[in-house]
Design the sequence.
């Protein structure tokens, strides 16, 4: 049936306009099966405050945030003539303009190194990037496409309370298009994120009630409904001032890139039972210091106390006995019958009476008397007081120390703000993510992979990076975190600074942003164990009047990890010398090669090698380069030449197991976005 809108489209005389309108209508109609319609291609623009306004740049008037950008026709005596299709040219002082790029416009990306911390020997460095996350994701496609194991993000919840900036404006509740803007914003980024995941990779997106239902439909579209894994509910507290219901739950939507590929690995997601390690340690202590009767009594008392305090779970407290020989926690109520019935039936004598015990109705789980006797000798069969009862299998806590995770959990959110305040020595960010919650779920969905690459491109205060470091400390892992965060300001702070005459790019403005004020200081502190004010993380912080500002964190002496900090940079390839070009792409080469060891920060005259990668800048030295590379543990080699035949010749000289990359001599071309001239 022809729709009314189709009939109206047929009345449009201009064939080109009719075709464009029809294309847009068909696009919207194709999405109706998902129940989700939004302005999919709404423009976004990114401002670059420190970039120089030239005749080749696109700009915005500083006073006009939004998606509209202008070309610069000419600059005369500090006055720029800016133009936009369909509008009259405007003259405006260069000082009142800011360079801006629309998402999708050609850009040349780099990463400006901003230092770091080294404490982790040969571990991969965690990479913390300050910048706009859409362009950061596009840049990461060069270094990590198909290489990220876990993505955890906590995007803006779009509450309408000024918690989200879109096109340099805080989006308020009265914005009629705020849901459409948010969906368009998320759609673009989720599609890039999907490309970064390994075939068995998993993404977790935290969200609350404001956009949960829309996000679920969007993710069904981007990741496909068949790859949905779970809708995890986090009950984080009760709101007693609520009029009707305390809506205190947040959610984590979990999707696989490919549920089929994940299933094919045979991996089952499990986590250690809460309190299991402490229980096993306590049982060993009692076994070593008390006689069996005293140990059993003390063990039961300890279980009751720990369960009441919430430090162990029911899954641990059920192990209420200690093994007679080893003192290990056991339970003696495990089923010893054949699953489904029809199992073997044979006599098993009771160890005290010598008479055959009662055979389970479904038969024994063990195939023959010999196997049964082996289990009895190993202390794995529990007998009742006499032969009139049926025995049970013994369950050892050390063998049953993991459990499947439930999709609902309860944990108070308030503790995370207190913890971050103690790390920083001040309370500069009121709603950080919970390190333990993030660490727990990253560990679960990584499926036991201690070398997982974990990405968070809504990095905020750096919680995900710290969570990854904490996991590494707990199990000697070598996981790597890649974090992308903006340097956004709280709305009230931004309004006050604007009132005082400051704006993006000004020192006074930038130092109040989340990256400079919270993220970097936090991560430097948890790695070194030293706060920025010089105090130790284990010590409390007091002000001049003796008032306590923050508590110390016992045992927090720092993590054995490496961290590098960098800023996403937008470069003009025609206005930058080659040496600086190389410095801006150096972190990308380092990341692509694994982020281990030293980074080659300066362009080599001939060639150079590190423990992980090598760079040939002068092909006249290719033979010496090949000899040294082939004799080294290098995994990646970068050959700088504009001559394809020369590149092939050098590549043929290198070991087959080396990842070989072709770099153009104009370095920025290698990391161009949306230009079509990438090698």
Sequence:
């Amino acid at each position: 049936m022809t729709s009314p809108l189709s009939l109206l489209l047929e009345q449009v005389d201009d064939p080109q306009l009719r075709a464009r309108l029809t294309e847009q209508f068909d696009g919207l109609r194709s999405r109706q099966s998902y129940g989700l319609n939004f302005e999919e291609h709404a423009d976004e623009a990114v401002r670059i405050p420190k970039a120089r306004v030239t005749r080749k740049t696109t700009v915005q008037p500083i006073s006009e945030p939004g998606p509209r950008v202008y070309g610069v026709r000419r600059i005369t005596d500090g006055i720029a003539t800016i133009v936009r299709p369909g509008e009259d040219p405007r003259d405006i002082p260069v000082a009142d303009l800011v360079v801006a790029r629309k998402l999708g416009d050609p850009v040349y990306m780099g990463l400006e190194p901003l230092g770091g911390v080294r404490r982790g020997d040969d571990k991969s460095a965690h990479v913390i990037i300050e910048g706009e996350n859409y362009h950061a994701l596009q840049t990461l496609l060069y270094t990590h496409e198909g290489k990220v194991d876990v993505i955890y993000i906590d995007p803006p919840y779009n509450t309408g309370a000024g918690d989200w900036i879109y096109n340099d404006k805080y989006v308020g509740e009265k914005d009629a298009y705020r849901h459409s803007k948010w969906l368009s914003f998320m759609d673009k980024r989720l599609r890039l994120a999907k490309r970064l995941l390994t075939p068995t990779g998993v993404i977790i997106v935290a969200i609350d009630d404001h956009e949960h239902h829309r996000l679920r439909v969007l993710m069904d579209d981007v990741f496909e409904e068949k790859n949905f894994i779970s809708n995890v509910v986090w009950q984080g507290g009760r709101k007693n001032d609520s009029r009707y219901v305390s809506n205190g739950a947040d959610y984590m939507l979990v999707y696989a890139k490919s549920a089929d590929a994940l299933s094919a690995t045979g991996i089952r997601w499990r986590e250690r039972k809460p309190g299991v390690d402490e229980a096993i340690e306590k049982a060993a202590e009692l076994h070593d210091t008390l006689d069996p009767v005293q140990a059993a009594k003390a063990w039961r008392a300890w279980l009751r106390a720990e369960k009441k305090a919430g430090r162990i779970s029911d899954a641990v407290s059920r192990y209420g006995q200690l093994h007679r020989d080893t003192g290990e926690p056991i339970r003696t109520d495990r089923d010893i019958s054949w699953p489904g019935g029809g199992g073997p039936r044979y006599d098993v004598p009771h160890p005290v009476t010598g008479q055959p015990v009662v055979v389970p109705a479904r038969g024994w789980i063990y195939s023959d008397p010999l196997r049964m006797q082996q289990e009895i000798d190993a202390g794995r069969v529990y007998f009742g007081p006499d032969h009139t009862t049926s025995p049970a299998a013994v369950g050892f806590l050390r063998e049953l120390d993991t459990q499947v995770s439930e999709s609902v959990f309860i944990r108070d959110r308030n503790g995370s703000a207190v913890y971050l305040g103690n790390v920083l020595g001040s309370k500069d960010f009121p709603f950080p993510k919970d390190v333990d919650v993030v660490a727990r779920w990253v560990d679960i969905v990584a499926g036991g992979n201690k070398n997982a690459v974990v990405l968070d491109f809504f990095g905020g205060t750096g919680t995900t990076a710290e969570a990854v470091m904490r996991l590494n400390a707990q199990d000697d892992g070598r996981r790597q975190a890649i974090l992308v965060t903006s340097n956004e300001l709280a709305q009230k702070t931004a309004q006050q600074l604007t009132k005082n005459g400051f704006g993006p790019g000004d020192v006074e403005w930038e130092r109040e942003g989340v990256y400079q004020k919270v993220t970097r200081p936090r991560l430097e502190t948890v790695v070194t164990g030293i706060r920025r004010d010089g105090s130790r993380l284990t010590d409390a912080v007091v002000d001049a009047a003796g008032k306590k500002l923050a508590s110390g964190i016992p045992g927090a002496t720092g993590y054995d990890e490496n961290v590098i900090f960098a800023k996403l940079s937008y470069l003009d390839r025609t206005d930058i010398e080659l040496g600086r070009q190389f410095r801006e792409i150096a972190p990308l080469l380092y990341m692509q090669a694994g982020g281990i060891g030293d980074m080659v920060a300066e362009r080599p005259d001939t060639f150079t090698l590190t423990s992980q990668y090598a760079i040939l800048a002068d092909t006249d030295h290719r033979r010496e380069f090949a000899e040294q590379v082939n004799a080294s543990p290098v995994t990646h080699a970068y050959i700088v030449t504009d001559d394809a035949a020369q590149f092939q010749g050098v590549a043929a000289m290198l070991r087959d197991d080396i990842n070989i990359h072709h770099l153009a001599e104009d370095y920025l071309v290698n990391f161009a976005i949306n230009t079509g001239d990438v090698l």
